Amino acid sequence: MPISTSAQAAALWTALTLLVLLLLSLQVVRQRTKHKVLIGDDGVPELVRAVRAFGNATEYAGPGMAALIMLAVVGASPLAIHLFGAAFVIGRIAHAIGISQSAGTSIGRAGGTLLTWVGFLFAIVVLLFYAI
Which end of the chain is more exposed for a tag (fewer CB within 10 A), N or C? Predict the structure, then answer.
């Protein structure tokens, strides 16, 4: 008996993606409050990094959640969805941690980007398999 259906697997990773976005947006609010900045970043390094961590995660969230939904719609196995979801969410978390700690290059940023891209390539291959 499967641990979850395809739809349940997609729902899990979509919810976790949304949770990452919520936590990152709370970091932006925390930095804005701390530095009394209502709009923009006023050049405050911590706020700049928080805004970029949220912005970058947001840029990837839509395509990532669309891939999760499409994987479920085409009937990909829950395992395939969990593999993509884990790579995607862990990649986004690693990237957010990396960019939040340093504006320069970091293992978190590079590793998170790589894991996200590997997840995307996996989803692309699976979706093309079902499409053809």
Answer: N
Sequence ranges of the domains in the chain:
6-131
Q: To 5 degrees, how large is the angle CA 112–CA 7–CA 55? A: 30
The answer to whether the beta carbons of residues 42 and 35 sit under 8 Å apart is yes
6-131 topology per CATH: Four Helix Bundle (Hemerythrin (Met), subunit A) (1.20.120)
- Confirm if 24 and 54 have CB atoms less than 8 A apart: yes
Measured distance CA(95)–CA(84) in Å, rounded = 16
What is the C-alpha separation between 48 and 28, in angstroms, rounded?
A: 9
- What are the tens digits of pLDDT across the range 46-103? 999 999 999 999 999 999 999 999 999 999 999 999 999 999 999 999 999 999 988 7
DSSP 36: T
Q: Give kind and range of the element (H or E) at residue 87.
A: helix 78-101
Residue 3, phi then psi, degrees to nearest 5: -65, -35
Q: Which of 54, 32, 36, 53 is nearest to 102 (CA)?
A: 53
